[in-house]
């Protein structure tokens, strides 16, 4: 059973996170958890923490009642109220379960800029090993029909293959690999072709439908965003940085650009250790 953790702060923008979570819950046994995090000081100056909690419980119960008719037969929804730092409490809630994911809108009460991610989302991405689905305010989520798989020569670029294969099987979706040769160097180009072949072989072995596009001298982020704009019901899959890297580098520039500018939902997958084929491991080069 998958636990879908949805941070909720009662902003209008946060509602879109619920919409995406409802879509994702359609393909299996799920528990959808709306999680409100109280800070150590109440958000409402004239209220104490106990009063704030009672209001949050009442409002969350109203939301659960509203979405109940839309839940798939094998899905239940519940509210959770925690206290502490928002990103830490959300991550801890998700990591209580072996099979879980986080779904969040990228515009919440804290305010997110168009180019730079807000601190809570960025810290969640850097702190969790669970998949994090993000969606911009104004994007209408639908059934996943195409998963866009941007690929370059960074070792973590391939590491999303196991989770992407699982998603593709769940949704009967096609994986579209976007391989960009950003260098004229022959060794770099050969490395990219090798990575592409490895990913395709991995998907073949799991009978996942896929197609590949190789483009020269293009920006990987721009190409992916362009493809997303042209592809209805798509999802972009990205990988965060190696968890053993210095903390400031855990979420690279490309993932941040894709999440903050994407016209479709994005799933960010932490590096995993899984043998994929011969010398190709999800954490190796």
SSE diagram, text form:
Layout: E1 2-7, H1 15-24, E2 30-38, H2 49-67, E3 75-83, H3 86-94, E4 100-105, H4 119-127, E5 132-135, E6 146-151, H5 161-171, E7 174-181, H6 186-205, E8 210-216, H7 220-230, E9 234-239, H8 253-261, E10 266-269, E11 275-277, E12 280-281
Parallel strand pairs: 1-2, 1-4, 2-3, 4-5, 6-7, 6-9, 7-8, 9-10
Antiparallel strand pairs: 5-10, 11-12
Helix pairs in contact: 3-4, 7-8
Describe this structure as you would to a colleague.
It is a single chain. The protein is of the alpha/beta class. It has 8 helices and 12 strands. It folds into 2 domains: 134 residues, HUPs (Rossmann fold, 3-Layer(aba) Sandwich), CATH 3.40.50; 136 residues, 3-Layer(aba) Sandwich (Rossmann fold). It has a 10-stranded mixed β-sheet, sandwiched between helices. The C terminus is likely disordered.
């Amino acid at each position: 059973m998958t636990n879908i953790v949805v941070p909720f702060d009662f902003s209008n923008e946060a509602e879109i996170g619920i919409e995406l979570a409802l879509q994702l819950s359609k393909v299996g046994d799920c528990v959808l958890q709306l999680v409100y995090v109280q800070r150590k000081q109440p958000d409402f100056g004239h209220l104490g923490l106990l009063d704030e909690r009672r209001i949050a419980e009442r409002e969350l119960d109203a939301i659960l009642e509203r979405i109940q008719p839309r839940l798939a037969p094998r899905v239940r929804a519940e509210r959770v109220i925690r206290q502490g730092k928002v990103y830490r409490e959300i991550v801890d809630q998700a990591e209580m379960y072996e099979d879980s994911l986080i779904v969040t809108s990228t515009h919440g009460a804290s305010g997110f800029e168009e180019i730079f991610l807000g601190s809570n989302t960025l810290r969640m991405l850097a702190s969790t090993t669970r998949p994090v689905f993000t969606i911009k305010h104004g994007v209408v989520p639908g059934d996943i029909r195409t998963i866009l798989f941007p690929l370059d020569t960074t070792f973590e670029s391939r590491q999303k293959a196991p989770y992407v294969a699982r998603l593709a099987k769940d949704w009967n979706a096609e994986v579209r690999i976007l391989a960009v040769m950003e260098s004229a160097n022959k060794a770099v180009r050969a490395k990219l072709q090798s990575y592409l072949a490895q990913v395709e072989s991995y998907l073949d072995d799991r009978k996942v439908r896929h197609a590949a596009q190789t483009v020269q001298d293009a920006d990987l982020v721009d190409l992916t965003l362009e493809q997303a704009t042209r592809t209805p019901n798509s999802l972009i899959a990205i990988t965060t940085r190696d968890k053993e890297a210095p903390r400031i580098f855990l979420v690279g520039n490309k993932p941040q650009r894709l999440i903050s500018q994407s016209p479709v939902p994005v799933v960010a997958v932490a590096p995993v250790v899984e043998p994929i084929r011969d010398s190709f491991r999800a954490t190796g080069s």
